[in-house]
Amino acid sequence: MINAPNDEITDEISDDFFAEDMALESSEDSGDTQPVLRGDEKEDESGSNTPSKLIAGGAGALGSLAVGSIFFEVMRVSVLIALVSPLLARMKSNRNDLLTRGRLLGYLEANPGIHFSALRDGLGLANGVTAYHLHTLESAGQVISWRDGKLRRYAVSSLTREEVSRIKNPIVGTRLAILEVLSNSGNIGMSGGELQKKLHISRQLLSHHLMELRNGEFVEAASEARRPKWRLSDSGMDVLITSREVARIEATA
User: Fold this and answer.
1) 44, 51, 54, 60, 84 from 48: Cα distances, Å
2) Angle 165-167-169 (CA atoms, 0-180°, nearest 5)?
C-alpha cells in the first residue's frame, strides 16, 4: 500500500520529462527554434546606434547653419547694394557735373565773350545741359554774362575790368579791318594814306576810327613825326587775336 503512491509519482514525473523531450524534438524538427538574445548583446546593439544618430543629427545641424548663413549673407549683400547704389549714382552724377563745368570754364577762359550757341556747339552739349551748368557757374560767381542784341555772351569772372570792357565792346567792322591791315605791317606800321587806299574809305572816317583805336590803346604811333605811321600795340594784338577766335567760333556755330 505504501509503494503505490511513489510509483504513481514516479510515473507522473517520467511522463512530464517524456512530454518535454517530445516537445523539444518536435520544435527542432520543425526548424522554428528562435535564438535567445542575452542582455549584454541588446546593450551592445543599442550602444552602436547612438553614435550614428549623433553624427546624423550633427550633420543636419551643420547643414542648416550653412544654408542659413548663405541666406543671411545674400540678404545682407542685397541690402547693402540697395543702400549704396543711390549713393554711387549720385557720386557719379556729381563727378560728371564737375567735369562738364570744368570744360565750360576752360572754354570760356580761351574764348571770352563767346555767345551761348557757339559755346554749346563748341563743347557738343545739349541746350538744357549748357544752360543748367552756366546758370550754376554764374550763381557761384565763376562766370559773368551780358546781353548783346539777341545774343547772350559769357566770360569767366576772373577777368579784369579793362578786359571785360574790351570784350563787351568788341572791335568789329572798320576798326577790326584796320587792326587786321596793321598786323601785316609789323613794327614799321602804315600811314593814314596807305590805310585809306587799302581799306577804300574816306580820310574823315579813317581819322575817326584811328582816334578811337588810339584812345583804347589798340594802336600807337610808330615814330614822333607830325604824321606818323600807325602800328598795333600789344593790347591791339591781343584784342585782334581774341576777335579772330570769337569770329571763327561764331562762324562755325
Assistant:
1) 6, 6, 11, 20, 55
2) 70
Task: Tell me the pLDDT band of 37, cut-offs 50, 70 and 90.
Answer: very low
The pLDDT value recorded for residue 42 is 47
Domains of the chain: 95-158 (1.10.10.10), 170-252 (1.10.10.10)
Nearby residues of 179 by Cβ (< 8 Å), 6 or more positions away? 171, 213, 218, 219, 232, 236, 239, 240, 243
Please identify which residue in the block is written with the cell numbers 564737375.
98
What are the cell numbers at 16?
A: 512530464
Provide the mean pLDDT of the chain: 74
Q: What is the dihedral of CA 233, 167, 128, 120, to 10 degrees?
A: -20
Least confident residue range of 31-40, 116-125, 144-153, 233-242 = 31-40
Encode pLDDT of 20-35 as tens digits.
555 445 444 444 445 5
